[in-house]
Design a protein that fits this description.
Chains A, B: Belongs to the LysR transcriptional regulatory family. The structure is a homodimer of 293-residue chains. The first copy, chain A, contains nine helices and ten strands. By secondary structure, the first copy, chain A, is an alpha+beta fold. Chain A binds a DNA duplex (30 and 30 nucleotides) through helix 3.
DNA sequence: CCTGGCCATACCGTGGCGGTATCGCGCCTG
DNA sequence: CAGGCGCGATACCGCCACGGTATGGCCAGG
């Protein structure tokens, strides 16, 4: 017999949503509770309360395993976006207060080591604009930029299609280029005039590096763990790993590394992205300057 | 002596943000409290708590007037978006649950009376597509579509540039057309072959109609209050008001009204819009169908 | 059959939230 | 100039909801 659930009353609180997202990501109440810094029973209760109040089953608890229902998957997706919007509101407000107190600035985020020439030109050109304000450059690991931009920690980002997801942002294309494999000088592969992506698979002595994921842990694999671009370059020159990167990285290579064009790698487009809700004149100026380059 | 405020700890709760938005919109604690269905003192306290926790002054309370600081204005703007995202997460989750229970559908929202031919063609064409699902059409007053779409009550919308704000949505243009003035048959102006917008100002016997705003109240003015398109058309044929509308409305006019082209009115572009976070195949199909028309 | 892992339930204490009463402070008015 | 009034802040109180501990129920694996 289907139990009738009374009509839903209030709004979802961020606390509840944070709890749900944690459980939906871990698919394990105990680990989620640990991540949230709380005990498991109140978490269980909060989730079932949320389900009861929404009148929707979000998680399926079969014996010894938790899984998402279709509705739960939607709430995970939309809820992440909503939590990011809450965060963004908070960060942007705090930054607006600082700006009003006399320290206006733009935070630009980009993947460490990417598009550095373009970035240098952009910063130089923008600084020459009348009315420009200081630009704080924030460098981050791959795939983190969009999160920082959506979370309001940055005002504008340089993203790289097709790797970065640009949905939800306004963008302008700046540059499209091919990719190269960066290899240790003297390695067998480095003597080829060009390579294919498949040539880089299963090179036992050059396993792909591993970057930390958003929770700070590393995916499993044989490659070395890296936190920064310079670290990676050093590991390449030591003959421990390789890197696939847009052409423009060549200008920053050490002379004990070699860049070999990849004929079948997807072309990379660098775009400048900003949140559609942005009302900042400074961001608009920066974007205009970038497009003119 | 500036009082040092301790570093901010937790996240902003939707409750606090709802409270702040209410006060920021009313600029009056008493009225805001009334709107929120609570007493004024706890509201005052919640706001000052929020300010203390964020370490940011949001409202300026001079004697007998409340105003927004720069930071407060940012939080109002970003906070509205964040609350809409929370709402959207909730509504979409509930609709996903219904869909999973066997009643999948798309909710399409459009301004009542606009683009009806286009809409009819679209619905017909989409219904003929393989794998199409029922489309619930939701009609609303001018300027409400974007809110319904952002709030997750609709999956897709027909918007009209330049009137509707499309920031934050993905869009495809469908149709661009001129505008006409719809007048009572027999009115002096209706005999002109064409008109300018300025000709419609200060026509004492045809004051512009007033639509309800988002809070349900009407702006002040001499024109009649209207809630629906058919109501408006009836008022026009009674000689009480006039309407400015895209060309395509002609097909639905009663024969006691006349449409006169406006030579200097901005051209109107009908676009189909959907939230960038949408993962619905049905929405994608509907959009593809619309673009092909 | 026993053990261990995992989520749910039961029960308890505390902190936060909202309510009422009242204060402080300008402004307006007679 | 005194009194009234409008409005936000403060004081104080009661309740509920949230989080913690202890424990139960259930299933899988050995």
């Amino acid at each position: 017999m289907a139990r009738r659930v009374r009509a839903y009353a209030g709004a979802v609180e961020t606390r509840e949503l944070r709890y749900f997202v944690a459980v939906a990501e871990e698919l394990h109440f105990g680990r989620a509770a640990q991540r949230l810094g709380m005990a498991q029973p109140p978490l269980s209760r909060a989730i079932s309360q949320l389900e009861r109040r929404m009148g929707v089953e979000l998680l399926q608890r079969d014996s010894h395993s938790v899984s998402l229902t279709a509705a739960g998957a939607v709430l995970l997706h939309e809820g992440r976006a909503a939590l990011e919007a809450m965060e963004a509101a908070e960060h942007r407000t705090r930054r607006a207060a600082l700006a009003a107190a006399g320290r206006p600035s733009i935070v630009l985020v980009t993947k460490a080591g990417a598009s550095s020439e373009l970035l240098a030109k952009l910063l130089h050109a923008y600084a020459a604009e009348p009315g420009s304000i200081p630009v704080d450059v924030m460098l981050c690991g791959p795939g983190q930029q969009a999160r920082l931009l959506a979370g309001g920690r940055a005002d504008v980002a340089l993203l790289h299609r097709p790797f970065d997801d640009t949905t939800g942002f306004d963008t302008e294309e700046l540059l499209t280029e091919g990719q190269v494999a960066v290899l240790p000088a003297g390695h067998v592969l480095s003597t080829h005039p060009s390579l294919r992506l498949s040539d880089l698979d299963d090179v036992p002595d050059l396993p792909r590096p591993r970057w930390p994921t958003s929770d700070g842990s590393y995916p499993p694999g044989p490659g070395p763990e890296v936190q920064s671009h310079s670290q990676l370059l050093q590991l390449i020159s030591l003959g421990r790993t390789l890197m696939v990167s847009p052409d423009s990285c060549r200008s920053q290579l050490r002379d004990d590394t070699v860049a070999v064009p990849l004929v079948d790698a997807p072309r990379v487009t660098t775009v400048i992205a900003w949140p559609p809700s942005s009302r900042s004149l400074a961001v608009a100026d920066l974007v205009r300057t970038a497009v003119r380059l």
